Every structure is written in C-alpha cells, then in structure tokens.
C-alpha cells in the first residue's frame, strides 16, 4: 500500500515504520501539538469549568425535570446557572475535606487528608448532582471512583477496597446497597446522600431548584440513619456538607495536569475489573479534541445526559459540552422516555450508542416507511431519494422532502438537532444511514476507550463509509502492529492489517496498583495496545475488523477468534445473540445462541408442522428446547459458517438454544456498553458447555 498516494487523508510521520508496525498516522490538519491552539490556555477539567463560569456565569449549566408524584409525570426542565453551580461546587468540595478532617484525630491522618489526591466513590444515575460532585472533587484535587449497579456486589466491594475510598457519594436509593456490605469495606468512613435525609429542611436555598424527590419515606430514611450509626459510618446529605464547607473557609486546591481526575474501573469481560488511572490532562485533551472547530461563544450547545457518567463516553461528552460553555439536561432516569426528555430539552446534539439508535430506528420506521397505505408509500419514496443523494455525496438534507416530511421526524427528538454521533460499539450501516436522512443531520462514528478518555479516531464530517471509525483525532497517534497468531500483518495486501496502538496525551497512566497488567498493554514509550484489530483503508481511514483479546487455541493448535465468529453468526436472520467457546483440549468450538423470536418461531413452527409434530402452540421457550429444532438450527449455523468462508475448525459442532437473552441486569452477561462478558458467560454456561462436548 502507498501511504503517499493521492487522496490519503491522514498525515504519515516520516520514517516511522519499523519492523512489525505500520507507519504512524496523525490527524492531517493537526500534525503536531503546536498546531493545536484552540483552548490551549486550559490544562485541567478544573480549568474548563471555571473558565466557563467566568465567561458565561448566568448561562444555564445543568438541569433536570421535577417529578410530580401526584400524577406520575415529569415537568419541564429547571436549571442551575454556571454561577449557581460554582458556589455549590466550592462549598461541597471544601465540605468533603472538612468532614474528613473532623472525623480523624491523629496528626498523621489529618496530614494525609490535607495532602489531597485521594478518591471519593460516586454511585448514582446521571443527575445534576453527579456533575456538581465531579467538579467539587476537582476543586480540591480529589478524584472520582465511579460505581454502577451492574457491577454486582462482589465487584463493588472489590473496587471500594482496591481504591481505598473512605467516602461514598450516592443517591439515597443506593445507600442500603453500601450499608449491606459495609462490614467487608474497612476503609469506608462516610456516606453522603445526594438527596435530603432530613424532614422539614428545605432541600435547596435561594433560587436553586429542589432535588429530584427520593422514593424513600421518612421512616425508611430514619432506618438508614440508625443502620449507618450502628456501623460507625457517618451519614450526611449534600446540603449538610455544602453548609459545612461554606463555614470552613477552605480555599480551592486546584489540580495539576498530571493529577488523577478519575479512577474508572472497566466493567471487565474477564476477572476483577481494572481501575484505569486517567489524569486531568487525559480528559482535558479529549475534551479539546472533541471541541475542535465547534466553538460558538454566543450560543453554547445543549445536550441530553443519559450515557452513564460512570463510563468514559458520557463523562467526555459532558466535558466537551462544558468546554463549549453549553447546557446539560439530565434524562429522567427512564430510558424509554428518552425521546420525550429530548423533545422537552431540545438538544442541539445527541451522543448515541447502537442500542438507543436502534430503538430510534424501530420507532421511526414503524411511523414512516412501514406505515400502511399511502403514507408508507410516500415515506418510502422520500427515504429512497434521500438515501440516493446521501450515497452520491450530496448530504443528508433535501429541501422538498425535509419541509413536508422530515422536519417533523426530526422534531420527534429535537427541532434544534444539528448533529449526532455513535460510539461504544459497532452499528449496522443501514440504521445509521436511515437516521441520517430522517433526522436530516450529519452522523459519524468514533472510536475510543476507557484508557484513552474516549478519544482515539473519528469519522470526518460527511463520511458515511460503513464500518469506518475514521481518522486520528487531533493529538492522537495511531499505528497498527502485526498479530501473527491471527495471521494479520501490516504488510498485508492490499491493505495493512493489525492491532491498533494509540499514543498521545489522552492515553491513561496505567491500571491502579496493577503494574503487571499495565505493562501488558502500555509500552515504556507510551504506546497503548488496544486489543482491537483494524485495517488501514486506501484513504488513510481505519476500520475495525476483529478483536485480539478473546482468542483461544484448540487442541490441534489452531487459534479461534470467538468474537469474529459471533459477528458472523449475528448476520444470520435466526440469531439474536451468540456466545462461542472452546476448550484447549478439544478440536472444535461449541456455541450458545439466543434465537431471534421474530424469525425463529415461525421457522421452527413450520419445521415441526411439516413433521406432523407438536409445535407447542408456537411457544418460544418450548421450541428452543426441542431436539429436532436444535439439530436443524445447528445445520443452519454450519451452512452459514461455510458460506461465510469460516475455516473447518471454526464450524461449531453443538449448540444450545437459550430462550433468555444476555442482558446487563438480569443474568449480567453484558457490560453496560452491551459487550459480552466472556469470562462470566463461560462460568454461567459451564455445565451446558460440558454437556455440549459430551454430545
């Protein structure tokens, strides 16, 4: 491949190719740090917030919808301005320091607290107080350690102990989950509720809006107080700590760029979660990269916050918005109401993930192209014409069709919508393109990881290349490295293939207290091995094609990449989810499949009907347990595998049909970003896997 060919849109660092690695690629516009001048006066997330406070103190910063318990509805958004939040941030940060100083007696402990750079766990759904807590911690050079429900009790206990957190800040509905396991958390000294724990006490002062009502009644709150006291755990609410901080007079203790900003534990597909140590410089770099060329000082962007702030994508999206002096509205907590929240807020942008975008797709197709009669016919004609224009490079807008049809479709989300993005996982190209033309906006995919503060590569504006994650983001260096055990080489023709390596100021410091695991992925000269396999395309863009981390070896010495096989199976209409596994003592893999009920039930029913056998009235679970259906399904998988050019040793020899989908909360087989937790799935299905091999 010629890296100097006309039309190559990435900058190639001269003489950077070494044995086993491709040349280093950079952003074509921002080739070096000196060329990145936008927001160069800011060096920490603390700088981002306080600069915006100074520039637009009266602009709305964070808002939420107040719940009406009488009729079970949510009202309009109410906001706190940058100046109002700044006061709360100052007081809350100082209050956390003062609270801890009050709790200890020895000079050594007081000195340790005063030195800062210790972590505070945050456990809550997205809400304004999550953001306020984040900024309060930064104001005192403390860092956040994010917790979330899908971790499970054992992982939560592990994280609190591993990170040595002495304080947990959480919503009131999470307090009992902490207290239930407090005996196994010797470092924990205090819990701060983001909801009021007192009666007859105003939950806000001045012009600030009230907190979201807690589901707990007074009696339940009293029980929590008594429970905490019995365990010698301090139990406060945010208002108490703000008042304590205001009275303390403790000044800000601003962080340095290399100070820890957040300790973010990856949800983990194997073993205990790892705590990625990310600094202020890491997240400041990511925010600056995301804001390049988008600054409008007269009217900042408006975003809906629903992506979990316990993960890098949601946190980075908020930091970009804050850098652009924007406004953040928090969803009501029910993802099924996200469109209603957006219509109420009227955001200018929407950071998407495949699951939510697929839901939008289903909703809109049902209302438009799949509508009956004349309405459906008109929408199909309009979408067909707009898609043709999109593929011809004419963009996502159409003067005629937008005016009479698609402006109303866009208004289902927001009439002010200017752009959308997709990240965290791959998404079907037809879904992206349909949403591009129906929402009438540019919509690109990006690539980033927890270890890079969600920064890495992103598509250029107007690029609709399927499966493409774009070009290096400003400040990021990208190269590929050989993966010989999977037969991927940077010398492959026509395009180089290999593992993605990233380097730049957004790359994390390492895993907290895990030098061995850090050394496995982070080289001494700063290159982070992502575990993702990619191809460099003819124009210099990059496409993900495989994963390295999950490979295993069969008894005959052949390596299997189960994620690649699962991706192949996912293209079969009968397959909704799949999990491929194999033992090193066996010479073939086996598979657990969750069939797609929409296609599977009629397919299986017809097979049994043709055989003259009981169909179970088309019951999904009954059909998955039928042995003849299992054999027919296995034959379908084998045939699909051969047609997809799978190797002989990749063809599964036995399959288990599972009627319960893999999910985040029930069987906990998916991470919060909907990736399969392979280690957990292996344990969950161990007996079934053994039975499949006994077949």
From TrEMBL:
Keyword Nucleotide-binding appears in the UniProt entry: yes
GO cellular component, one term: membrane
Highest taxon listed in the record's lineage: Eukaryota
Span of domain AMP-dependent synthetase/ligase: 79-512
One Pfam family hit: AMP-binding
Gene3D superfamilies associated with the record: N-terminal domain of ligase-like
Recorded GO MF terms: ATP binding; long-chain fatty acid-CoA ligase activity
Key words of the record: ATP-binding, Nucleotide-binding
Transmembrane regions listed in the UniProt entry: none
PANTHER family membership: AMP-BINDING DOMAIN-CONTAINING PROTEIN-RELATED (PTHR43272:SF33), LONG-CHAIN-FATTY-ACID--COA LIGASE (PTHR43272)
The protein's name: AMP-dependent synthetase/ligase domain-containing protein
UniProt lineage: Eukaryota, Fungi, Fungi incertae sedis, Zoopagomycota, Kickxellomycotina
